Amino acid sequence: MNRRKFVKIFAGTSGLFLTGASGLLQSCKSPAEAPIDPNQQNPLRIPTEIQGGILNAAYGSANVWRGPSSDVLTLNGLFTGPTVRVQKGDAFSILFTNALGEPSIIHWHGINAPSGMDGHPRSTIQSGAQFSYKLPIQQRAGTYWYHAHPDANTAKQVYKGFAGIFIIDDVEEAPLNLPSGKYDVPLLLQDKRQRSDNAVTYDPTEEDIISGFLGNVILANGTPNAYLSVEQTFYRFRLVNASNARVFKIGFSDGRSFQIIATDGGLLESPMDLTNFNLSPGERAEIIVNFSADPIGRSLKLASIAYDFNSSHRGSTFPQGLAMDILDCRVVRASATQSKSIPAKLTTLEKLSSPIRTRTFALTMDHSKPKGIHMINDLVFDLNRIDETVKQGDVELWEFQNTADAFHSMHVHGGQFQVSERLYAGPITPVDGGWKDTVLVYPNETVRVLVRFTDYKGLFLLHCHTLEHEDDGMMINVLVT
Ligand code: C2O
Ligand code: CU
Ligand code: CU
């Protein structure tokens, strides 16, 4: 295909990003109606943005791949969920209506929420019931997310589609003039097992409970084989790993470098140049990609690139480390907006120090058991048992000791931490920087973090974000007093 023809074919699809909210909604709902392109790729769906209102969860169907529709879990009729977008200082409220036919509950991952609003599986919402979430948005700008969190049934609901991005904007970030509007691209990433009947089936084997349920394709905002028409300028990609178990190695097909500007809890102090980084389930990263030197007609892929992972729990069918494309970025035109570089200084972060207490968490596995194989300090999750009691405002050092040869990505509710040390698996990486709520603990590695629960007292959680491990019991209750 020559360049002129290429530009002509894809010029039509860029209208997707110029239409109003209703046009976007349609593009979310009916990818099958999008113009067919010769490469059998699909325009990246950009989820509708909501500020609150209603979130209705139901099992239903959606056109995910070409051909037969897929049985998925929809949120307000969408697969995957709408993007919540609010300002720091807002009073966020949303009415969750559970039409799933089974219990569920929403957790606002990374958001400091009062204990009763945080989505602890103790307060599950029964099928047919509603719950009104009210959260004052008090924390800094960043890319957070939300997902289902019912006891022992999180993995299936998230796999089927119960997940969405939650963006907070604030006045500290606004003057930095980071790419915005259509140049600010949310990317909720989930791997799926593609089947010939297009079904989205969650049927883990015993081996999948141990290695995690791993797929062979990555959907971005529910879009398989996604592409995005980009201009010759800077883009901000907000990457959310909403996979059950897949650890992505994020990079580009041409090996180009990009800048990481934010992690789980918002901006880093300065942008850092990278060519790739690992992103484990639950983690987020924001990157700036510069297309201004790319000729029109060039196409390059954002991908999860291959890596070695020698473990007895690497997943038998679609192992960790498998190369998979995420998003084909097609450079289609010059930019009307001035290419702008990213400020060298983004913010100043408070540094946690002088922990007053140390707690160790042994991440253990016992293969002799049929269930409850995965444990923290030899405990299998019990909804009603308090495992740790922490004082609000104290800085503590938490040490995650992974004695298994599997990945565990450790996540806390109700507090944030800073990664202070990685023993054995190498130095702290840029994606470990800034405020975090989830950290990847490599096989046989120990990670130390400094953690503080600042905003609320009450019952919160610490768990592995490999959802099969979480459902199997690798989770404990943390009471903040
Ligand atoms: Cu994103 Cu308790 O989880
Ligand atoms: Cu094991
Ligand atoms: Cu785990």
Describe the structure.
- This protein has 481 residues and is mostly beta strands.
- It has helices spanning 3-11, 21-29, 154-160, 206-211, 467-472; strands at residues 42-43, 49-50, 53-62, 70-75, 83-87, 91-99, 106-109, 130-136, 142-148, 163-169, 184-192, 217-220, 226-231, 234-241, 248-252, 258-263, 266-274, 276-279, 284-290, 299-304, 324-333, 358-365, 374-376, 388-390, 395-402, 408-412, 416-423, 438-441, 446-452, 458-464, 475-480.
- Strands 1-13-21-20-15-18 form a six-stranded mixed β-sheet, with helices on one face. Strands 12-11-14-19-16-17 form a six-stranded mixed β-sheet, with no helix packed on it.
- A hairpin with an 8-residue loop joins strand 22 and strand 23.
- The chain binds CU-O-CU linkage and copper (II) ion (CU) (2 copies).
- CU-O-CU linkage (C2O) is lined by residues 107, 109, 147, 149, 282, 411, 413, 461, 463, 465.
Question: What labels would you give this structure?
Answer:
six-stranded mixed beta sheet; 5 helices; binds CU-O-CU linkage; 481 residues; binds copper (II) ion
What is the strand content?
Answer: 35-45%
Intertermini distance: 65 Å
Question: Can you count the beta strands?
Answer: 31
Helix content: under 10%
* Class by SSE composition: mainly beta
| Low-pLDDT segments | 1-38
- Cα-atom radius of gyration: 21 Å
- State mean pLDDT (0 to 100 scale): 91
Number of helices: 5
Which oligomerization state do the chains in this entry correspond to?
single chain
- Summarize the biggest pleated sheet: 6 strands, mixed
With strands numbered from the N-terminus, the spatial order across the biggest sheet is: 1-13-21-20-15-18
Shape: globular
Ligands present = CU-O-CU linkage, copper (II) ion
